[in-house]
Each structure stands twice: as structure tokens, then as C-alpha cells.
Input
Amino acid sequence: MLISGTSTLAADRAAVYRALNDPAVLVATIPGCQRLEALGEDAYKMTVAAGVGSIKGVYDGEVRLTDHVEPSRFTLKAQGAGAPGTIGADVLVTLEEDGGRTVLSYEADAVVGGMIGGVGQRVLAGVAKKTAGEFFKAVDDVLTGKAPSVPSPRGEGEVVALAGAAQPGVF
Output
């Protein structure tokens, strides 16, 4: 399933790049994120509560940030599994300066399996775009000071946040 979109954030490209690569910002802004644990540089173990309609559950997986070209782009690679099914995604994130603001573009190639995969590509794509919009708004709120950010731990095996850090990403 291919998903793409854009969002404009009210900060310069370097600040947006730093925020999107900061585990403290990620755990505070990813809808449904319950736990984010550093596995090494740019690699995290993650627990997320998410769902579509009545198919809800908790997913455990890993996220890696790769192919960094600071401050213009990086790739996020995620995989996870839970009772509702499995998901894997490669997301290319591109940042372009726009007069002190940043236009963020993303292109995701996702593979969904299990019960959640039976929902249908159109519904899943709609939920994915809605979730992405919520995430980018939350990141923008951190960047503009509307929402607080926390200092970023960087040690391997260090838990960045536990359950209750964010509201469930259930629709």
C-alpha cells in the first residue's frame, strides 16, 4: 500500500529535522505510543496502541531511522506485530525550506497483514493519513512551544517513555 502526503510546520528545516530524529519528541507526538526504548543509534523498540474501527490492539515492533541527509531527508523503517495483525513500512521523509517554515513530504510503502489487513486499502490509507496529520500537528505544537518537549535520552536500552505518554491511536 502506497501512501503519501505533505504537511507544513512552523519551524525552519533544521529544527524540524532535529525534532523528527529526537526520541523524546517522537514518543510525545506519535499517536498511541506507549513505550520507546533505545536499541542503539537511531534504532528503537516501540509499543503502540492503534486500531481501525473495532479492530484495536497493541503492536510491538522496531523503528530505525536511516539514510540521513541532514537536514533534508531520512528514511524511517518500521515493523511491528500484535493481535490484530502485522505491519511493515518504509517511509521516505523529505524537508524543504519555505520562508522560515518547512514543507514536509512523505512517501510510505506499507505492508499490512492479518485481521487489520482485511479492513481494506482505502480505509487503511485514510486512517494512515489521519494519523500522520495528528502526528505532524503534535510535532508542530512541540516546535512552536504549544506543547512541552522533554530532554532526550540517548543511551542504549534506555526507556524514553512508558504507557500513558500519548493517547491511543484508535479511530
The CA atoms of residues 19 and 25 lie 6 Å apart. Helices lie at 13-20, 23-29, 121-144. Residues 153-159, 161-171 have pLDDT under 50 and may be disordered. The two ends are 19 Å apart (CA to CA).
